Amino acid sequence: MKTNRYIIISVIILTAIALVLVLSRSETTFRKDSADFAVDDSATVTRIFMSDKNNNSVTLNRLGPGNWQVNNQYPASKFNVEMLLQTMSELMVKNPVAKAAQNNVIRELAVNSVKVEIYQKAYRIDLFGQIRWFPHEKLTKVYYVGGATSSNQGTFMLMENASTPFVTYLPGLRGFVSPRYSPLSKYWRDYTVFKKTIPEIVKVRVEVPGTPDFSYEVTNNRNNTYTLVSLKDNKQIFDYDTLRMLNFLSGFRNLNYEALLNDIDKHKIDSVVNSQPFIVITLTDTSGATRTMKTYHKQGPEGQADPQGNPLPYDLDRLYATVNGDKDFVVIQYFVFDKVLRPKSFFLKEPQKNK
Q1: In Å, what is the CA distance from 120 to each residue of 117, 126, 303?
Q2: How would you label 340-354 residue by residue, b for 16+ Cβ within 10 Å and e otherwise?
Q3: Burial 213-251 (b: 16+ CB within 10 A, else e)
Q4: CATH number, residue 57
Q5: Same structural domain for residues 73 and 205?
Q6: Phi-psi region for residue 204, left (φ > 0), alpha (ψ -120 to 50) or beta?
Q7: Are residues 217 and 133 in the same domain?
Q8: Rounded to whole angstroms, what are the CA distances from 175 to 53, 101, 278?
Q9: Distance CA 48, CA 277 (A)
Q10: Are 36 and 139 within one domain?
Q11: Considering only CA atoms, which of 174, 178, 172 is closest in space to residue 144?
């Protein structure tokens, strides 16, 4: 009697399991992991690799909380990386691609997509999330990001080794997410040129090669006093405007270039950098590191003229510049950098200006 009871219970359990499997199979014909694009915990992501079919690729490495690096070389844009991590964690699947369209979508993904590899911190021993031993980096997801759907409200994606592509979307976003998966390193670069507060600044040297009398050097004496020296004759200027000095030095708090132009015509870059710089700024910080920016005049846009109608020789809004040890050719805005592109006369009090 007891044996029969065990048999009946076993049959009921097996029937229930079979029923669940049948029902779940009737709801969907794809494996769950083939649609598992979202990252459960973006804080555990340690590395992201992206590449396309045009040999563009980029690697983003986490160095610490909120601190990422591009291709093991350049600081990464915190804003752009955080947007990507948010996208990866909130990504949702709308539906699998209809069978009639799957072959076309897969063919398109094969020639025009971005391969994404996501690495996360994992533990070889993880007991209920409480006991975690032997941390290591693990490749957790590999998928391909394609273009937008015809409605531009979804993105085609395919998990590696899966046969069914899906339409994904980001809740709250009216559009598609593929632009956020850029394999171009310049998109992920931090555009900072100078980012120092006054206490972090030791010295600022401003050279104006075309007008040497405008050149000067400011030294932070660390006691709320500053030394201003004219570079033309190496003479110290004592009677300067303190407020203007503070405004100048505080201008280095957060200065970013507008665009990275390393990929434009090399002859054009050489033509610019081989000309005489407009203003050269060198900042030395408390760690002893120096950072130099060389600026160059940019040809004005077609049709730009002065109030009398005369063509202007230079762009009034932008300058070219070299940064990062002259390795990067960029464009900067006067609107952003005007506060530090100051001649020596800017600091002089009015009576001295008129002498």
Answers
A1: 10, 14, 53
A2: bbbebebbbeeeeee
A3: ebbbbbbbeeeeebebbbbeeeeeeeebbeeebeebbeb
A4: 2.60.40
A5: no
A6: beta
A7: no
A8: 23, 21, 43
A9: 39
A10: yes
A11: 178
Number of Cβ within 10 Å of residue 33's Cβ equals: 10
Range of the domain at 327: 192-353
Asked whether residue 19 is assigned to any structural domain, the reply reads no
- The answer to whether position 10 is within a domain reads no
Asked whether residue 64 falls in the same domain as residue 162, the answer is yes
User: What one-character-per-residue DSSP string does 100-169 give?
Assistant: HHHHHHHHHHHHS-EEEEEEEEEEEEEETTTEEEEEEEEEEEEEEEEEE-TTSS-EEEEETT-S--EEEE
Total tally of structural domains belonging to the chain: 2
Instruction: Quote the tokens at residue 236.
Output: 């110290």
Of 104, 103, 113, 115, the residue nearest 48 (C-alpha): 115
Q: Which two tokens stand for residue 139?
A: 């490749």
Residue 339 inside a domain? The answer is: yes
Q: pLDDT by residue for the chain (355 residues), tens digit each?
A: 555 565 555 545 555 554 444 444 433 444 557 889 999 999 999 999 999 999 999 999 999 998 999 999 999 999 999 999 999 999 999 999 999 999 999 999 999 999 999 999 988 888 777 788 888 899 999 999 999 999 999 999 999 999 999 999 999 998 899 999 999 999 999 999 999 999 999 999 999 999 999 999 999 998 889 999 999 999 999 999 999 999 999 999 999 999 999 999 999 999 999 999 999 999 999 999 999 999 999 987 777 777 777 777 889 899 999 999 999 999 999 999 999 999 999 999 875 444 3
Last residue of a domain, one of 171, 188, 205: 188
Q: Which residue has the tokens 């390393």?
A: 262
Asked which of 188, 221, 236 is the last residue of a domain, the reply is 188
Residue 31 token pair = 């494996």
CB 200 within 8 A of CB 130: no
Burial of residue 30, with CB atoms counted within 10 A of its CB: 0-12 exposed, 13-18 middle, 19 or more buried: middle
Tokens of 115: 């391969």
